[in-house]
Amino acid sequence: MTAPAIERITGVGIWSRALRYSTDRAACRDAARELEQLGYRTVWLPDVGGDPLGVAGELLEVTEQLVAATGILNIWMHDPASVARQYRQSLDRFGDRFVLGLGNSHAPLVDAGSPGRYQRPVTRLLSFLDGLQSAGLDTKEETVLAALGPRMQGIVRDRAAGSHPYLVTAGYLRRSRELIGHGKLLAPALSVVLTADPVRARARARAHLAGYLTLPNYLNNFRRMGFGDEELRDGGSDRFVDELVAWGDVAKIGQRVAEFFDAGVDHVCLQVADVPGEQLPMTEWRTLAALTGLARALSHSRYLNGLGIFLPGC
Question: Hey, which residues does 13 pair with through a beta bridge?
Answer without folding.
Answer: 269
